[in-house]
TrEMBL record:
It comes from the Bacteria. Residues 111-125 have a biased composition (Low complexity). RNaseP catalyzes the removal of the 5'-leader sequence from pre-tRNA to produce the mature 5'-terminus. It can also cleave other RNA substrates such as 4.5S RNA. The protein component plays an auxiliary but essential role in vivo by binding to the 5'-leader sequence and broadening the substrate specificity of the ribozyme. This is Ribonuclease P protein component. Residues 102-136 are annotated as: Disordered. Its EC number is 3.1.26.5. Keywords: Endonuclease, Hydrolase, Nuclease, RNA-binding, tRNA processing. Residues 126-136 have a biased composition (Polar residues). Consists of a catalytic RNA component (M1 or rnpB) and a protein subunit. It catalyses: Endonucleolytic cleavage of RNA, removing 5'-extranucleotides from tRNA precursor. Belongs to the RnpA family. One of its GO terms (molecular function) is ribonuclease P activity.
Length: 136
C-alpha cells in the first residue's frame, strides 16, 4: 500500500464514493492505472489541537494497517477523513467500522432519478400526457 501525497489525488478521491462512520469518513475512487492501492489520511483543524489531530491520524493509520488487504480493491485510492470520535472510539470497533465501510463502497450505486422505463418510483406505469408522451 502506498500513500496519497498530492492534493489533486485527494480532491479526485473526494469526488468518489463515500461511507460515513462515527470515527471517520471513508472515501474511495477507482484509478485507471495499474498501480498499487493508495491511502491518504486527513484531519481538519476543527477536530482539535495539533496533538489531538496527530493522535487521530495515527489511530487511522494503524486501523488501515491492520485491516486485511482482501477488503480493499486493487487500483483504488482511499482517503480516511478523521472525526473527533476517533480519539475515544474503541479500536476493535473502529476496525469493524472500516471493514463495513469498505464493503459499502463496493456496493453498486443505486439507480436514482434516471428512470427511463416508463414507471414511476413506486413501480407503477405513469399516465400518458395529452401529447402521447409518458410522464417521468
Amino acid at each position: 500500500m502506498d500513500r496519497l501525497r498530492q492534493r489533486a489525488d485527494f480532491l479526485a478521491v473526494a469526488n468518489g464514493a463515500r461511507a460515513n462512520t462515527t470515527a471517520f469518513v471513508l472515501q474511495g475512487r477507482r484509478r485507471d492505472d495499474q498501480g498499487p492501492i493508495r491511502v491518504g489520511y486527513t484531519v481538519t483543524k476543527k477536530n482539535g489541537t495539533a496533538t489531538e489531530r496527530n493522535r487521530i491520524r495515527r489511530r487511522l493509520r494503524e486501523v488501515m494497517r491492520q485491516v486485511d488487504a482482501v477488503f480493499m480493491r486493487p487500483h483504488h485510492d482511499y482517503v480516511l477523513v478523521g472525526r473527533r470520535d476517533a480519539l475515544t472510539r474503541d479500536f476493535a470497533t473502529m476496525l469493524d467500522d472500516l471493514r463495513s465501510a469498505l464493503r459499502r463502497l463496493d456496493r453498486p450505486a443505486p439507480n436514482t432519478g434516471n428512470n427511463k422505463t416508463g414507471t414511476n418510483k413506486a413501480g407503477n406505469k405513469s399516465a400518458p400526457n395529452p401529447n402521447g408522451m409518458t410522464r417521468p
